[in-house]
Design brief:
Its main location: membrane. This protein is an alpha+beta fold and 478 residues long. 46% of the residues lie in helices and 26% in strands.
């Protein structure tokens, strides 16, 4: 058995034995892995998704209420003594109709009148429980307060009221104004983000009262966070931070809860997950893996060997190829030149052209670096047009290129260089509908008997230097 087959056999044995061992132990680690994935990835992403959808649905009524609070009509009407209440009535009716709102309102702090599109409904009274919302808004440090009014006929539907403070240009508090919009069921939104019912999702206010909740996967009714066994002692910590993830004991099971403060509502979004000892997401994959493990292992061995070999070739190609032009880079070209010099006995004639694009910095400065990249790529294409091949062309550095010409003597090399020079001078690069002219200077040498690579490249560089000193856009040889 040769070394390659021995290695393949050993890899196969280790893979199969390892697979069996890992499969036997995977259940115990899979539970922990699944739990960590749910807590670190699924739960946060679910929270972000729900938050973004809630924010999207509430931004419109919040912005409308903010514009109403800043409306100079409202400020002037109040400061003028609230004359002609019908004017405010028409204003609120127009806002309600224009924005398809359930209602719109304004409560004056001076008269305590509750203005509505249908007229003055009443005067708010601090002693009435149903009017406490107004005085809470007045005492709030926030610009607005969101109030949720559940429909007693259908607990799945609700109305969002945006109560926005009205403050005039002098900083005087004038009252509260806003609209009420009918929003699709939040519980439906919560359940849409919980298709497998693996979470219990709910909203809680700053006192821990459950305001809205998705499908209850917990046996006992939940109206307050303290109703969840084991959570009461952690309530204060969860409601004192903008974000928090914690673990607690729920009736002997490990439960995780992720909290996120929703400033637009003034509530906390809570996503709770309880670990199940025999989760089908663990058991089914385990049985499936055991069933197909051996056949998959064989395929994996073949794929691994094939993939490694292919990637190795790609990495080798990337190491010797210029990314912009697709020709060889300096590292790759050194291998080409060394092979040519090693074969000097069978291929005694070898010439090379080293050319550099003239005033290339000016092209970059005038037309941007992207335009400079276009010029470089066009130059390579023009070399291929003249010489017919670019497998011995390399980007030597920046805008400098070297073209090795095997079996080409100096006069022939000079002819090729001159043809390329003229091709450059008579061509244009197009970039963003701009025509860019460019030229290059060329140094040409032929390998001398017994000359090594370093000496050859030195003479080539000197020839290019002389071409530059001779006024550019010229061909110079040594």
């Amino acid at each position: 058995m040769n070394t390659k087959n021995r290695a393949l056999t050993l890899v196969s044995i280790f893979l199969l034995v390892g697979f069996v061992a890992v499969s036997a132990l995977s259940y115990w680690s899979a539970r922990q892995s699944l739990s960590e994935q749910v807590i670190s990835e699924v739960v946060p992403l679910t929270g972000v998704s729900i938050y973004s959808k809630i924010k999207e649905r509430l931004m419109a009524p919040i912005q409308i209420s903010a514009l109403m609070a800043q409306d100079t009509f409202v400020h002037d009407w109040v400061n003028e003594g609230e004359l002609q209440p019908s004017r405010m009535q028409r204003y609120l009716a127009e806002i309600q109709q224009r924005n398809n709102a359930v209602t719109s309102f304004f409560v004056s702090d001076k008269t305590l009148n509750y203005y509505h599109p249908n007229g003055v409904l009443k005067q708010v009274d601090k002693s009435h429980p149903q009017d406490k919302w107004y005085f809470a808004v007045k005492q709030s440090k926030q610009d607005y307060v969101v109030n949720i009014d559940l429909d007693t006929r259908d607990l799945q539907s609700f109305t969002v009221f945006i109560n926005y403070k009205v403050v005039d240009s002098d900083g005087q508090y004038l009252g509260a104004i806003g609209i009420g919009l009918s929003v699709d069921s939040v519980t439906q939104l919560l359940d849409e983000n919980n298709p497998h019912q693996q979470f219990f999702i709910f909203f809680a206010d700053k006192q821990g009262e459950v305001m809205l909740k998705g499908q209850n996967v917990i046996a006992n009714p939940i109206n307050h966070m303290s109703d969840i066994t084991g959570l009461a002692q952690h309530q204060q910590a969860l409601l004192s931070r903008e974000k928090m993830v914690m673990q607690f004991n729920l009736n002997g099971q490990i439960a995780h809860i992720n909290s996120r403060y929703i400033p637009e509502l003034g509530w906390y979004l809570m996503i709770m997950h309880t670990e199940k000892p025999w989760d089908s997401r663990i058991v089914k994959p385990l049985l499936f893996n055991l069933l197909i493990g051996f056949s998959v292992s064989i395929l994996v061995i073949a794929v691994v060997f094939y993939t490694l070999k292919r990637y190795q070739r790609e990495l080798e190609k990337m190491a010797v190829t210029d990314k912009l032009t697709g020709v060889a880079n300096r590292h790759g070209f050194e291998h080409i030149v060394k092979r040519m010099f090693a074969n000097a006995k069978t291929k005694p004639v070898c010439s090379a052209i080293l050319f550099d694009l003239d005033d290339f910095k000016q092209i970059n400065d005038s037309y941007t670096h992207l335009a400079g990249d276009r010029v470089i790529c066009d130059a390579v294409a023009l070399v291929e047009d003249v010489y017919g091949r670019v497998d011995t062309l390399a980007r030597w550095g920046g805008e400098e290129f070297i073209l090795v010409l095997p079996n080409v003597n100096l006069p022939q090399a000079l002819k090729i260089a001159e043809d390329i020079r003229q091709k450059f001078a008579n061509s244009r690069s197009l970039f963003n509908q701009q025509s860019i002219t460019f030229t290059a200077s060329f140094g040409v040498v032929q390998q001398q008997p017994g000359e090594d690579l370093d000496r050859f490249l030195l003479r080539l560089d000197q020839a290019l230097y002389q071409a530059k000193q001779s006024g550019k856009n010229v061909v110079y040889s040594q």
